[in-house]
Amino acid sequence: MAIPGTPKGDLPTELLQSRMYAKGIEWQLDKLEKAFPDLGVEVYAARATWLASPFASGCAAIEADIIKEDPEKGKAMLAQLDAASRKEIAKFQTLSTAKAAKEFLMLVDRRAKGEIEVDLVRANLLWNHPGYAASPDKEFADGFSKRVQHTANSGMEVSFEVPMSWKAEVSPKKELVGFRNAYGHGNIWMTVLISPLVDENGASITADELYGLFTEEKLSLSYEAMGIELTSFLKTKLNGMPAFMFTRRQPYEQLGEKALRAAEVIRVLRGRHMINFQINTFGPVDGPAGEDRIKKYQKLFKLIGASLRVQE
Asked: Does pTM top 0.70 for this prediction?
């Protein structure tokens, strides 16, 4: 089964559970079509809406991965799981009236638009959708995002949106929050840090003052001392606030294992605070894989940054 990066938790089980949720909707629609022939048009419309959604597409992609690995074994396993699941679903899902059937059809419509009750299921179906796997920004652009509130120790409060398929990670510091793609199983992770603005001597400084002083040359020199290479730099604005956007790469080694860490940063200045968005990934030391992955996620990263709202 295709696993994008080092998994945390039992990814195969998570994917099978997510597939079962999607298949359960399809099975229930089949039952309604037979039990309530007068609702044929409504059932047809609900099925079409669901099958056109990225959730149904993600379910199909999970199935295809399972079968691709070992066609005979994969098909047999899915058939066995489906038979057992149908029996369980039949025990708990009994729609005996036309009213209940219509309510379920409306529920299917809402689920196709993202109102799936289980975060794990919604996320796993989304990131397996081939269109979003190829272009991560499309998930966000299609409206499958959620707003996150973040308050630092200083009391500064911000909010921003992240894709529904991303999972929040526990951070030991209140001023820092983290997220990882593919519902925690992916190879891209993002941190958002709020910190006070200070000059090179550690004295408090305003956003406008720092924006005037901050240059590509100064950043490059400070990174050079830490073994980090600055690969791009842009002085810009974000929602009217002074901002910088830059990329960097850094050799990484742990217990003999070597890699190249690539990152992109959006640094926003507001009042006497800095809001720092950063996406990171690892790639082989002798190849561009990590930096290519950062480029692939750049459109999405800009959308996340542009969603920033600051509460005074």
From this structure: yes
